[in-house]
Amino acid sequence: MKVSLKGILSIPIIIVLLPPVLVYWLVIVVRNKLFDWGILKSEPTPVPSVGIGNLCHGGAGKTPLAMHVIGLLGREHTVGLVSRGYGRSIKENIHFVGRMAASVAGDEPAMMARRFPKLQVALAAKRREGVAILMDEPTPPQYIVFDDVFQHRWVRPTVSVLVTSYDNLFSSDKMTPFGNLREPRRGYRRADLIVVSKCPSSLTEEQREEVLRAIGPRPHQKVFFSSIVYGYPMAVYGHDKLYHADVMLVVTGISNPAPLIEALKERGEVEHLAFPDHHTFTKADLRYIAKYYDDMAGLHKAIITTEKDAMRLDAALAKEILGKLPVYYIPIEVAFHDGDAFDRELLRRLNA
Question: Residue 2 has what pLDDT?
Answer without folding.
Answer: 38
